[in-house]
Amino acid sequence: MTLSESGAAPAGEVVLEAVGLTKHFPVRGRLRDLFSRTPAVVHAVDDVSFALRRGRVTALVGESGSGKSTVARLLAQLHPRTAGDIRLHGTSTRVRGGRRFRSYVRRVQLILQDPFASLNPVHTVRYHLTRPLRIHGTAGRGAEELERALADLLTRVSLTPPERYLDAFPHELSGGQRQRVAIARALGADPEVLLADEPVSMLDVSIRLGVLNLLQDLKDRLDLAILYITHDIASARYFADETIVMYAGRMVEGGDSETVTQNPAHPYTRLLTDSAPDPERITGALSGADAARADRGGGEPPSLISPPAGCRFHPRCPHAMRRCVADAPPRLTVGDRPGHWTACWLYDPATVAADPPGSAAPDADPTVPPPPAFAGRADTGPREEAR
Amino acid sequence: MLEIRGLRVDYGLGDQAVRAVHDVDLTLHRGEVLGLAGESGSGKSTLAYGLTRLLPPPGVVAGGQVLHHRTDGPPVDVLALTPAQLRAYRWAETSIVFQGAMNSLNPVHKVSTQLHDVIRAHEPDSTRAGRRARARDLLRLVGISADRLDSYPHQLSGGMRQRVMIAMALALEPQVVIMDEPTTALDVVMQRQILGQLAELRRKLGFAVLFITHDLSLLVEFSDRIAIMYGGRIVEEAPAAQLYGRALHPYTDGLLHSFPALHGPRRELTGIPGSPPDLRAMPTGCAFHPRCPRAFAPCAGELPPLGPPADDDPRRAVACWLHPAGATAPGRPIPTAEPTDHP
């Protein structure tokens, strides 16, 4: 089998693009809903746009229920989208099964979260890997070439010697090895894009790093575009070139990973980074003050059947203004680094001037320091200084 | 408070038995948070189930003692209690918040019914109104409004269900709360809220917590002391800050360099090569030596004892030939480049 012919295409070229991607799932209605005009829907994903580039990892970070997995499924064309567009090399694609779906998944492969569930327990590794090779016509001719292709796949995910794993059943493998088989299976199609939906969250901490390093290595060698979906924003910092944060079905912030994790602009991203475990804050840090701070960002993600008007984070936001309740914020540039944007009215000078931040906050607290946005945004240093 | 002496837990009987926990000694002091970390299969959950006698078959406690020191009266050996004594002991003195606790609520009963059950089982004389008031207080304690009492579990979010479980664990004001991966299924924001609340409740009520998780970064921040388990044994035990600052056992060091840090400078991540040992075929000597980057001659041959290292703080303990115990150290050849300064 051949590797992707990456020499022809320039690095960083957009491979797969989501434009205004939207997915609403219908809710099974009650009888009285039959008579209402607007059927109830879950707004799982609303207006999501981003691009996956060759040889780059894009992380999609969010809580469970933020719609990040739905985005992966939409991109894999497992769900039909409600609105928006998916462009593969600039061409709009909409496939529903059949031959066209097959040629689409040859180029875009999905890796699932749970390797314990995504491999069939009654089949061997050989079976799992032979199928994609056969289906996508990369098996070569004859038993000998197939055997070589299989060994090649296993070597590529560092399961060596291949003979030891080929005839093993999934239950004979550890979690990390199983996830490697799942990755090898995705590589069997020789794809251009890997959609990795929480590929390591089911694995042990000591194993995670190995699998992430493997993905990174594959990205470099095969020039793959990778979408890395995770709830662990710290791993996005290390593994992804670009990070996008989602909240309640919308994108709230994006930019290069180091900027987003070290100088988060959106109040939600800040809540997320403040909540991540931090060993530097050794014991006793979970004191009263800290608990109070955690409470302030408290509350829970909103119902997606009737999401809040305006910014979806406003019921939890300590800086909410009147405009946040009314209008959904557009993407605004933060201005500290090129490409760093956020969907937050705090970064629109006209809005902030008209209305003090926090005026519409659920429990306005005068002691909350203003966000760096209007405390002189040009000189936002590292977060350590801001604390 | 709780003293575990030489606890051994097997799965299966006779020749087929697989030893999951080997001679573990562990002490939980009054009012402290003791973190227990390790990979899956290291025996940390088995230890927790063993010491509460909740092991499902074929798990068997093969030996050892679990002494519960009460404020009044002599210590009790939990492993020797009669079934009736055990029923009274459980939950009233030691309660557990299980892994995936949000699924351990009964879906067909209201939250109030389940809270009332706990109280009624242990305090049969309590009145209905008294129980209701108590349940109300408990929910308020964990930050849920009392009008949620008559909700069914599916009407609550994951975080709220978890808090109901914590409320239930605190219902009888136990001295010891064992938490087995209590926040693994939750988001980071919710995790921090719940842990913050737990820290506050602990200050208010003064119970001790045995906190079991594989997320070492969380433990370092949340617990007073940390014990690391590997292959059914405790390999290192130290105050949290010391463990984070200077891990002695190479396994601990590997764990600490496995998770990416969000704050501060980017650290190099090394991880741990290989995979966890198979309990049916444990390596000889130190169980970690096949994966250990610094293994040397004695590691494969002999099991290092857990004890205070000669070259460090006596408050900590480690089982590694790189840091042999002070007085009892056998005359082992120490490697020429004794690595005492970890990155």
From TrEMBL, chain A:
PROSITE patterns assigned: ABC_TRANSPORTER_1, ABC_TRANSPORTER_2
Residue stretches of biased makeup (Low complexity): 353-366
Protein name as it appears in the record: Peptide/nickel transport system ATP-binding protein
Gene Ontology molecular function: ATP binding; ATP hydrolysis activity
Chain intervals for the UniProt region annotation (Disordered): 289-309, 352-387
Gene3D superfamilies from the UniProt entry: P-loop containing nucleotide triphosphate hydrolases
InterPro entries the UniProt entry points to: AAA+_ATPase (IPR003593), ABC_transp_ATP-bind (IPR050319), ABC_transporter-like_ATP-bd (IPR003439), ABC_transporter-like_CS (IPR017871), Oligopep_ABC_C (IPR013563), P-loop_NTPase (IPR027417)
Signal peptide: none
Gene source species: Micromonospora mirobrigensis
UniProtKB/TrEMBL annotation, chain B:
GO cellular component, one term: plasma membrane
Listed CDD domains: ABC_NikE_OppD_transporters (cd03257)
Bilayer topology annotation: Peripheral membrane protein
SUPFAM superfamilies: P-loop containing nucleoside triphosphate hydrolases
Pfam families with a match to the protein in the record: ABC_tran, oligo_HPY
Coiled-coil portions: none
Protein name: Peptide/nickel transport system ATP-binding protein
Taxonomic placement: Bacteria, Bacillati, Actinomycetota, Actinomycetes, Micromonosporales
